[in-house]
């Protein structure tokens, strides 16, 4: 699924993960208004907050992967590294700082 992201930029990837988190929180708020049963509200809120937490943790994992590469090597040219996103290895373009 994430193999199509082979040429993605690191900042774009982090923004996408943050967008996943924000989007699921917005959907959770909308679902609280739409669903009438308390059990349905609780289940959908917990599920969507878990998705938000997963997106945010993946953003942190990508950031740490990029920071690790930057500290190990002195980047003078942009590099492509391999990081893990939701258990899948993807290639990320790391720009020169």
Task: List descriptors.
three-stranded mixed sheet, 97 residues, alpha+beta, 2 helices
Question: Mind explaining what this structure looks like?
Answer:
The chain has helices at 10-34, 38-72, and strands spanning 8-9, 79-85, 88-94. With 97 residues, it is an alpha+beta fold. It has one domain. Helix 1 (10-34) packs antiparallel against helix 2.
Write the topology of this structure.
Blueprint: E1 8-9, H1 10-34, H2 38-72, E2 79-85, E3 88-94
Parallel strand pairs: 1-3
Antiparallel strand pairs: 2-3
**Strands of the largest sheet, in order across it?**
1-3-2
- End-to-end Cα distance, whole Å, is 29 Å
Strand tally, please?
3
DSSP strand content? 15-25%
Précis, in short:
The protein is an alpha+beta fold and 97 residues long. Helices cover 62% and strands 16% of the residues. It is elongated, with a radius of gyration of 17 Å.
């Amino acid at each position: 699924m994430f193999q199509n992201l082979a040429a993605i930029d690191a900042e774009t990837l982090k923004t996408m993960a943050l967008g996943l988190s924000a989007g699921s929180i917005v959907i959770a708020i909308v679902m609280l208004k739409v669903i009438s049963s308390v059990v349905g509200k609780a289940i959908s809120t917990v599920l969507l907050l878990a998705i938000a937490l997963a997106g945010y943790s993946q953003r942190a994992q990508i950031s740490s992967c990029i920071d690790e590469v930057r500290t190990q090597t002195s980047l003078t040219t942009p590099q492509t590294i391999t990081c893990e996103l939701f258990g899948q290895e993807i290639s990320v373009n790391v720009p020169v700082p």
